[in-house]
Amino acid sequence: MKVIAMKNSIAVRLVILFSTASTLFLTGCKKFLEEKPTSALTDQYTFTTAAEGSALVIGAYRSMASYTGGAGDWGNYLPATLEYPTGKAYTSDTHVQFWKFQTNQTTGGLLQDFDNFWNNNYQGVRDCNLSIAKIPGITEWSPAQRSAALGEVRTLRAWYYFNLVRYFGDLVMDTSVLKSVADAQQPRSSLKAIYDNVIIPDLEYAVKQSSLADAKSTNGRVTKFVARTILSDVYLTCAGYPYQEVATDPTKNWCVDGLFAQSTYPVNTSSARDFLTKAQEQLNVLYGQYTLGTYNDLHNPAKNNSGEAIFQIQYLTNVSEMTGIIAAALPGLSHVSMFGDEYGTFIPSIGYFNSYNPADLRIKDRQMFYFSDTKSTKYDPAQGPADKFSQPHLYKYYDSVAIKSTAHSSLNWTIYRYADVLLMLTEVNWTLKQIGGAATDQDIIKGINEVRTRAMLPTYRASDVNLFNIMSERAYELVFENKMLWDQRRTRKCLVDGVGSFAGIQDFVGHQPVGFSFAFSKMNLLSPISQNEIATNGKCFQNFSFLPTQKGQ
């Protein structure tokens, strides 16, 4: 939360007016993304019209596009920086400084890996805070319209905070519009307080009280189905770590002092059972509302906001694109695309790939991975074969039109899709049964078996399902969708690479990934607070064992 960024957001310009309300609500993705500022406003402006209300809602989305943005160096994109700490990523390129993750030398000043993630999400929080404060004053809207708008924006604020709290732990808690630079000088609040006072109430309002449509999102806008999905994930996370450990004594400085010690999962507490039961309720509503398509749907822009997609970040050619991460998933300097650069920095490790069952459809050529390609016409008009890949690369981000023809993509980034919901459903029901909750055998297997059936793998009986199989299936299905880091942290378990399957599951603390020079410690349960936040907010202390530390820490 840079002071400069904060000052810009509350005192200079709020470039959040995108068009008239009728245009915003009646058109699709293209109009949704076309930014047409109509004014330069401060937080003192009184918003009353329907068009201004629509602008307040759309403005809350602006930070989402930054999710796939850069992390400060050539080929370095934020989604990759969420995969590097898991031990399941690889790149031979030195620019991204992956070796610092391999040798435990990450700091809050590493390129912009942590600064950008912190700033982007806090910008989203501040945009939402402004909108939440102003939407009640939109007199041209009915109470139901104001309620739906608040449900939409509060869901987004919860999502931004959910990103931050899983990454950094305790956070600076901003829920109102900051009035001065001095307001930005705040200590971190307990992560439990962030969940209890912001994330969960925001999502529960959206699901239980707001007038949001209880339906699918077809244009990237939040609906109740979206809010239900995020809320399910939040409940599942709060049933695990670090929430359950912090709940034993929220007054302790868990993150700054590095007090984490528990590793038993599932966590058997009344609080965990309550969260899991609530997650089960939401997931049961979502079950059967979507269908699983083909793996090719995952990288086909024509399938944006449809099929199994539940919530996606919206991109559009020549307006806002995630072509950087598409190029990062290509073999480095391979000449297979029309892009000016092919980074080779967003690659699952060979050990990760080898841990798939050879019969798994997902690793067959041009399903979720691919093993060769032709040269781009940019380099060879005949499109002859490119050099043989040194290892498999992700095909799930292969937008063929962008790669082979235009160098521009309108492919969306998926935050949640139905396969994720199915796997959450299995984990929630299995976990509930382990700790004395209500779940049938059919409840446990139905989600995971739908995912496995699409992959052409044998189905499970309920007696076959355990944490190892659940985490393995999540790793196979959701590869490089930025899920594994959160799975590791909430379960405090890591998968061990194998051949034909993962070799086993280990406690997070003590696990040493292949290619890493150290074993994970409790330090690695969090990420370092951004260097700029430490520099500009004298009340924000650094996480355990990371640099830079706050003055006097």
From TrEMBL:
Signal peptide: none
Keywords assigned by UniProt, alphabetized: Cell outer membrane, Membrane, Signal
All copies of domain SusD-like N-terminal, residue ranges: 31-236
Cell compartment(s), UniProt: Cell outer membrane
Main location: membrane
Gene3D superfamilies: 1.25.40.390
Protein name as catalogued: RagB/SusD family nutrient uptake outer membrane protein
Species lineage: Bacteria, Pseudomonadati, Bacteroidota, Chitinophagia, Chitinophagales
